[in-house]
Amino acid sequence: MDQQNRPARTRAPSKRITMARARKPAEIREIFERFRTANPEPKGELESVNAFTLLVAVVLSAQATDAGVNKATRKLFALADTPEKMLALGEETVREHIKTIGLYRNKAKNVIALSEKLIAAFGGEVPTTREALESLPGVGRKTANVVLNIAFGEITHAVDTHVFRVSNRLRIAPGKNVLQVELGLEKAIPDEFGRHAHHWLILHGRYTCKALRPECGRCIQSDLCDSPDKRTT
């Protein structure tokens, strides 16, 4: 399992939530109606200018914050926004640009390697299937799902630590691992919400339904939440 798919820093939900039944379809619809009303057009927070820079940004975001990745990639993407330009920069220069990001040495190797493969196998274009994306160095299922969703408009559910936590706490798709949660989300979320669902869940987990101190007092789903992690004060 690669870094993209390992919920290394995910605090596992309690057994009561992980093993609990998923909500009824009407309840899930209500949750996503609320998300849509509050934020009709949610956006990912990683900065990119095209499918290639999005792919690189997501690869770099493993075990790093979006803000930290954006700070590192602004200058990098100004110099290299295609696989050819990235390859021309070379691994040492890429490493220097991203050295503030965790695991930067291995990530620099992956960025150069995936650029090489994009040129050799895909004519320099980012492929549009999960299988092809996952064939690229440093790209796991989560990264592929993000690229398919944001760059190509597909309904996919990229499960990071925030999506994993919120899906369990709200019982949208209870699961013990990221794949269980992803497959549960595919079945549970109505198609009309599918395009934006993972953004709503990420943002909710990042800013409201936090791991250690969830801000339940301002949560738009608070009256629907029966998680043992819920804070009443």
TrEMBL record:
Alphabetical keyword list: 4Fe-4S, DNA damage, DNA repair, DNA-binding, Endonuclease, Glycosidase, Hydrolase, Iron, Iron-sulfur, Lyase, Metal-binding, Nuclease
- Sites where the protein binds [4Fe-4S] cluster: C209, C216, C219, C225
Pfam families hit by this protein: HHH, HhH-GPD
The terms under GO molecular function for this entry are:
4 iron, 4 sulfur cluster binding; class I DNA-(apurinic or apyrimidinic site) endonuclease activity; DNA binding; DNA N-glycosylase activity; metal ion binding
According to its UniProt record, which cofactors does this protein need? [4Fe-4S] cluster
User: InterPro entries under this entry?
Assistant: DNA_glycosylase, Endonuclease-III-like_CS2, HhH-GPD_domain, HhH_base_excis_C, HhH_motif, Nth
**Catalysed reactions listed for this entry:** 2'-deoxyribonucleotide-(2'-deoxyribose 5'-phosphate)-2'-deoxyribonucleotide-DNA = a 3'-end 2'-deoxyribonucleotide-(2,3-dehydro-2,3-deoxyribose 5'-phosphate)-DNA + a 5'-end 5'-phospho-2'-deoxyribonucleoside-DNA + H(+)
The note on cofactor binding and number reads: Binds 1 [4Fe-4S] cluster.
Q: What class of enzyme is it?
A: lyase
Enzyme Commission code(s) on record: 4.2.99.18
Q: Where is the HhH-GPD domain?
A: 60-207
Q: Which PANTHER family match?
A: A/G-SPECIFIC ADENINE GLYCOSYLASE/ENDONUCLEASE III, ENDONUCLEASE III
Task performed by this protein:
DNA repair enzyme that has both DNA N-glycosylase activity and AP-lyase activity. The DNA N-glycosylase activity releases various damaged pyrimidines from DNA by cleaving the N-glycosidic bond, leaving an AP (apurinic/apyrimidinic) site. The AP-lyase activity cleaves the phosphodiester bond 3' to the AP site by a beta-elimination, leaving a 3'-terminal unsaturated sugar and a product with a terminal 5'-phosphate.
The family database entries (HAMAP family) matched by this protein are listed as:
Nth
Q: What is this protein called?
A: Endonuclease III
Gene name of the encoded protein: nth
